[in-house]
Design goal:
298 residues, nine-stranded mixed β-sheet, 42% helix
Length: 298
């Protein structure tokens, strides 16, 4: 049986972290290792781990680097088995959630990334229920299972230039470029309690807008680049106007020189075939490539 490592990244959420760990330990299939990566918290996180969870692997980064770089610490260190990514405010909604996810992964070795169905406190979820497993263009880092034997072959890490968010879409696009697949499993749900601690919603809107454009600059094939950048920018502008985020476009425009510099430094476009497949997925026309049914575990 493959090793299963659960990685929880955290920053200044000691209370939420403790709850998340306890719920994970109550799973019918407990991970072989739980690894908490502390992004230089200044609250009681370190003392909590030392006092209440001394048997759990704990790494405190020397400085705050952000969740993307913190997750890359784990991705760069594990080359085989399965890696479960959770946030410090997310956990499986059913006691056999992890067991079912592992069973699905073992039955679908071609799925390098398995996106679990994230449900928020207001009842919103990523994928319709019921629905069969299907290929997707993205996932949420607070609820994903990686087949590290596949990802490590290509040294596939999150692109940390994105900062805060948007790295999941980019990873799925690059995975397609390597011939790997990302698969959603709607029946396996993870509750994301979405703690307000450390969240700045205007910033979140800005980074979502900026990083979608940056992804196009980095990955879009050259023949489609101008068209896709303009279309992506226009879609976000329309959203901003409808939802009152009036200053976001100006802030993104001010960031354009920085984005161009990053594109010159990091641009690595995928093939037209991979990009076209990713766009098709993003428009909702998913190709059903995975097993049609998740078997319940005893």
């Amino acid at each position: 049986m493959e090793q299963v490592t659960a990685v929880i990244t955290t920053y200044n959420r000691a209370t939420e972290l403790a709850s998340s760990i306890r719920k994970l330990l109550m799973q019918t299939r407990v991970p072989d290792e739980i690894w908490v990566i502390d992004d230089a918290s200044t609250d009681s996180t370190q003392s909590l781990m030392q006092k209440d969870f001394p048997a759990i692997r704990y790494s405190r980064l020397p400085r705050n680097v952000g969740v993307i770089r913190a997750r890359n610490v784990a991705l760069a260190s594990i080359s085989a088995g399965y890696l479960l990514l959770l946030d410090d405010d997310s956990w499986f909604m059913e006691p056999d959630g992890l067991a079912r996810a592992i069973k699905f992964a073992e039955g679908n070795p071609d799925a390098a990334i398995i996106a679990l169905n994230v449900r928020t406190m207001d009842g919103h979820c990523n994928f319709p229920i019921p629905d069969v497993p299907h290929s997707v263009r993205s996932f949420q880092g607070c609820a994903a299972l990686f087949n590290m034997s596949s990802l490590s072959q290509h040294k596939l890490l999150f692109e940390d230039v994105f900062d805060r968010q948007g790295e999941e879409k980019d990873m799925c696009l690059r995975a397609l470029g390597f011939g790997l697949s990302a698969c959603a499993v709607p029946e396996i749900e993870v509750l994301h309690a979405v703690s307000d601690a450390g969240r700045n919603w205007p910033k979140i809107r800005f980074y979502e807008h900026r990083n979608d454009i940056l992804r196009e600059l980095l990955r879009c094939p050259t023949c489609l680049l101008i068209q896709k950048v303009l279309r992506t920018w226009a879609a976000h502008t329309l959203y901003n106007l409808r939802h009152g985020a009036w200053l976001t476009d100006l802030r993104v425009l001010a960031a354009l020189p920085w984005m161009i510099i990053q594109a010159k430094r990091l641009r690595s476009p995928v093939s037209i075939r991979a990009y076209s497949a990713w766009v098709t997925l993003s428009s909702g026309r998913q190709e059903r490539i995975c097993s049609p049914k998740i078997e319940e575990t005893a």
